[in-house]
Amino acid sequence: MTKLGIIIASTRPGRIGLPISQWMAEEARSHGGFDEVELIDLAEINLPFFDEPHHPRLRTYIHDHTVKWSELVDGVDAFIMVTPEYNYGISAVLKNAIDYLNAEWAYKAVGFVSYGGVSAGTRAVQMTKQVVSTLRMMPVLDAVSLPFAMNNVDEDGYHPNEIATGAAKAMLDELVKVDEQLRGLRNSAS
Questions:
Q1: Which residues, at least 6 apart from 108, have a Cβ–Cβ distance to it below 8 Å?
Q2: For residue 105, what are the contacts with CB-CB under 8 A and spacing of at least 6?
Q3: What pLDDT does 186 receive?
Q4: Is the pLDDT of residue 189 over 70?
Q5: Exposed (0-12), middle (13-18) or buried (19+): which is 183, by Cβ within 10 Å?
Q6: CA dist., res. 158 & res. 90, Å (int)
Q7: Which of 74, 125, 83 is nearest to 102 (CA)?
Q8: Mean pLDDT, rounded, for 54-70
Q9: What confidence tens digit (pLDDT) does each residue in 11-20 have?
Q10: CA nearest neighbour of 153 among 164, 166, 168
Q11: To the nearest whole percent, how much of the chain has pLDDT over 90?
Q12: What is the three-class DSSP state of 117?
């Protein structure tokens, strides 16, 4: 059974990351490449600023919030990070969530849905790829970049155009392929 986790990387009130993530979850479910799709809302997870006394590679967590986060991430096979771009970079809440763990991320495929103004959040994705690669995650090349995404969000959710829908399918296809190849590495590492 394969599980896809879609991480909502913004906690800002009024964020458009939530409806974009909900749209992406619908696309992933209809795609059929994963048995289960779960939205992982960092606003609900509500991790404090990194507060574990030991290095994450040791997995000797003392706080319940870290143990729960570890179990959640450990139980997911591949990820999509839905991320804004803040000041040309990664959101602090996403960086913090990533930094809490180490081995739990290893040998998992990750795709990106980014949004923002003219750059569509692509600079944040480039920074995040450097971080997740260090944790042995495998970023897929195909991505969904949504310039001026706020113009396609209303009270009914996010309304993608054909380009966004096509990009989502290509990214999901690639995530499935890469996940299949990484499965053996994950099994041998545990």
A1: 76, 77, 78, 79, 137, 138, 179, 182, 186
A2: 73, 98, 132, 135, 136, 137
A3: 86
A4: no
A5: middle
A6: 22
A7: 74
A8: 97
A9: 999 999 999 9
A10: 164
A11: 96
A12: coil
